[in-house]
Design a protein that fits this description.
about 160 residues; 5 helices
């Protein structure tokens, strides 16, 4: 009986998540940083580290895990943060239109009343999204700086 195939190997990616040719070194380093997260607190810690290191594509993957699997009760919050991290990735890739759209959506969603906080400094994230969207709208292509303390299990809002 043949041994089952382990499946396709994940395609290597550059630091912004774009696929690289097979056999290239994976610039993401840890592959999918969300795969090993088993709790919302662990994922938020990984998210804070990704923010601190400027790893926006990796942060986006972690947020998707929070949104879909680990903290579904705070889904609207994580959806807004996913838009923020995707906007940051678009900034890194030089996609002004995509960045502006996603950052504006993130700012709008993060400012909604009654958004679950899940221990996150929502106001800080909303402010960053709004500032980045405004700068992109004015023609700039700023380097995104997402505040690690806003999502850190130790540094976020109570």
């Amino acid at each position: 009986m043949p041994t089952p195939s382990p499946g396709p190997r994940p395609r290597p990616r550059d630091h912004t998540g774009r696929p690289l040719p097979p056999g290239s070194p994976d610039e993401l380093g840890d592959g999918d940083p969300a795969r090993s997260c088993t709790s919302a607190a662990q994922a938020r810690e990984r998210l804070a580290a990704c923010f601190a290191e400027g790893r926006h594509f990796a942060a986006h993957r972690v947020v998707l895990r929070l949104w879909r699997d680990l903290d579904v009760d705070a889904g609207p919050l994580w959806q807004a943060v996913a838009q923020l991290t995707a906007g940051a990735v678009h900034l890194e890739r030089g996609n002004r239109a995509g960045a502006e759209t996603l950052l504006a959506r993130a700012a709008e969603r993060l400012a909604e009343p009654g958004l679950p906080e899940a221990g996150v400094d929502v106001a800080a994230l909303a402010g960053v999204a709004e500032q980045l969207a405004a700068r992109v709208g004015a023609g700039a292509l700023p380097a995104p700086r997402l505040p690690a303390t806003a999502v850190s299990p130790r540094g976020g809002a109570p």
